[in-house]
Design a protein that fits this description.
The structure holds two protein chains of two kinds.
Chain A lengths: L9 H8 L13 E7 L4 E10 L2 E10 L2 H14 L4 H14 L34 H15 L7
Antiparallel strand pairs in A: 1-2, 2-3
Chain B lengths: L10 H5 L8 E2 L2 E2 L1 E2 L10 H13 L10 H20 L8 E4 L2 H16 L5 E5 L8 H10 L2 E5 L12 H5 L2 E7 L11 H10 L3 E5 L11 H4 L3 E5 L10 E5 L1 H6 L10 E5 L2 E4 L13 H17 L1 H23 L3 E3 L11 E6 L4 H10 L2 E2 L1 E3 L4 H7 L4 E5 L6 H17 L3
Parallel strand pairs in B: 3-15, 5-6, 5-7, 7-8, 8-9
Antiparallel strand pairs in B: 1-2, 4-10, 9-10, 11-12, 13-14, 14-17, 16-17
Helix pairs in contact in B: 2-10, 3-10, 4-5, 11-14, 12-14
Classes of the chains: A alpha+beta, B alpha/beta.
Chain lengths: 153, 416
């Protein structure tokens, strides 16, 4: 079995202990989406403020384990201020890192590639397949929020 | 607390009968503390199933050759063993189901749909597993029945202060005999009596209780009780519904198909007598043999000895965890051991149970982390999930110590 140090990197524990962008946004104008991990009961709420196709603000609510919470925290930092298309591409890249979707780098055309940055710390999760769902919960919820009809209105 | 209790199980001998527990992961022994979820299987069960498949297997209840008759006899013997295990009045009072969940659904869907009307009340408790909640929700959505809830005391026992008012006018009282989350043992006899005083049916979710305690459904005064094989060292894929004979006879079939009919015509059908009436299709035949072997195995240990052993271990675990972690650990559920089974749900500081379980897994300590299919209870406890260690006949103090040592390392990693 891979060591726990592969999973619980310092940066992950840091985001877990001090989560960024916690809170709520008024809806509307923001949209909100809720995600559940039915296996462990974790819940996550993503508030998304989209202005002219750009993520103006994002807030995270809910409760969960160190992996789901740190993933949500890092995600919120990574997407803030970026265009919806870039963010969708980032979700694909993240899921690719989690071995869920193959990300061959194509298909995003001239969309600017966002860096995974801190998010690469979550790479170790792949070695613990049970936890992949924890890491992707926030991202699936983000996709849900992006699909809300008011986003591009 | 309970040092006067004598442990009458020779755990070393018992454990040696479980091949999986002799295996290792990363060259280290396995500390299996998830038996409230599903129990490991002894040679006696595994061998009985293999022997049956190799020497006696055939379809039951339909073919005329000798082998089929032998297989049918073996299946019915297993039913008789299971009936004896819970002191049913007759083997015909045992219906084999897929699991305890299906048994609860049988009660709700077959008895409930035939007997409940809009506005009728069903009384449940805040302790219940989803298997004793969702079948009634389904019925509520379909028929418009009302669900009432027995609340809990602060230490996780049923609060019966308002019981008479709650059951007044109710048609069903359906409550667990032992909580899968808190280990709480409920006053089943008292609940059944209250149900009957109100003219209600008394249903017992005995899934956690039966594997760990001597069970007497007649002494309970219950009408239906559900339990499963896989939590008592038998195979998964089979469970049982016990029901009083006259109730089973008056209840319409649940699933339709082969085996459950006396006659089928173009314009309808006639049901088979119980219990075949509720066993549509080819049942889990080999699993029934394994279930029967599990009953023999548990009887060989003695259910009083099983309970005494679990009491001793639970007491040791409570003492050990509190001594080593003090205020850092929150243990849910009753502190009185006489109303508690061998289930420990806990929280270590504010560590998420998933993380706790992950760290424990590194040391081969297998616990459950999650909502335990009891989300309403989680909400009541004010948590999303708990970590749960549960004990059985093959666990000993080494397992408890391994749990405590592993929790220490969790504290270290998360910097508590």
């Amino acid at each position: 079995m891979p060591g726990l140090e592969d999973l619980y990197r310092e940066i992950i524990l840091d985001h877990y202990r001090t989560p960024r962008n916690r809170g709520e946004l008024p809806t509307p104008p923001a949209v909100v989406a809720q995600g559940h991990n039915p296996l462990c009961g974790d819940e996550i709420t993503i508030y998304l403020q989209v202005d002219d196709g750009v993520i103006g603000d994002v807030k995270v609510g809910g409760q969960g384990c160190s992996i789901s919470q740190s993933s949500a925290s890092m995600m919120s930092q990574a997407v803030k201020g970026h265009g919806v298309d870039e963010v969708r591409a980032l979700v694909r890249r993240f899921k690719g890192m989690m071995s869920i979707e193959t990300d061959d780098g194509s298909g995003d055309g001239d969309v600017q590639q966002l860096e995974l940055g801190d998010l690469e710390a979550l790479q170790g999760v792949v070695k613990f397949p049970v936890r992949i769902k924890c890491a992707t919960l926030a991202w699936n919820t983000l996709l849900d929020a992006l699909d809300r009809p008011t986003v591009d209105a | 607390m309970t040092t006067e209790l004598i442990d009458t199980l020779d755990v070393r001998t018992v454990k040696a009968q479980f091949p999986l527990l002799a295996t290792t992961i990363d060259d280290a022994p396995i500390h299996y503390l998830d038996s409230a979820n599903s129990a490991q299987k002894p040679h006696a069960v595994l061998d009985a199933m293999t022997r049956f498949n190799e020497t006696t297997y055939a379809p039951i209840n339909r073919s005329a050759y000798r082998l089929a008759a032998q297989a049918t006899d073996a299946y019915e013997q297993a039913r008789a063993k299971v009936a004896g295990f819970v002191n049913a009045a007759s083997p015909d009072e045992i219906v084999f189901t897929k699991n305890a969940t299906e048994a609860m659904n049988l009660v709700a869907q077959a008895w409930g749909r035939a007997n409940l009307r809009a506005g009728d009340a069903v009384v449940l408790s805040h302790l219940e597993h989803h298997a004793n909640i969702v079948p009634w929700h389904l019925l509520a959505a379909e028929l418009g029945i009302e669900l009432r809830w027995i609340p809990l005391t602060d230490d996780g026992r049923l609060d019966l202060t308002d019981l008479d008012r709650l059951v007044d006018g109710a048609k069903v009282v359906s409550v667990t005999a032992m909580s899968n989350v808190l280990g709480t043992l409920t006053p089943v006899t008292e609940l059944c009596a209250a149900a009957h005083r109100a003219g209600a049916l008394a249903v017992v979710d005995a899934c956690q209780f039966v594997p760990h305690n001597a069970t007497d459904v007649q002494a309970w005064g219950a009408d239906f009780a559900a339990f499963s094989s896989h939590k008592m060292c038998g195979p998964s894929g089979i469970g049982a519904l016990w029901g009083r004979a006259e109730l089973l006879e008056a209840t319409p079939p649940f699933l339709g198909g082969g085996n459950m009919i006396a006659d089928v015509r173009l314009d309808g059908f006639t049901s088979a007598p119980v219990p075949a009436k509720f066993e549509a299709g080819t049942p889990p035949i080999t699993e029934a043999i394994g279930f029967g072997a599990a009953v023999d195995f548990m009887n060989g240990l003695g259910m009083d000895a099983v309970r005494a052993h679990e009491l001793e271990l639970t007491s040791y675990a409570l003492e050990t965890l509190e001594a080593r972690f003090g205020d850092e650990i929150t243990i849910h559920g009753p502190r009185r051991l006489d109303v508690r089974g061998g289930v420990l749900s806990f929280a270590l500081r504010d560590l998420h149970p998933h993380d706790v379980s992950q760290v424990l897994d590194q040391r081969n300590v297998c616990i459950r982390a999650g909502h335990h299919c009891a989300k309403p209870l989680m909400k009541l406890l004010g948590v999303a999930a708990t970590a749960r260690a549960s004990f059985y006949v093959y666990n000993d103090r080494d397992d408890v110590d391994a749990l405590a040592d592993a929790l220490d390392s969790a504290s270290d990693i998360f910097g508590l």
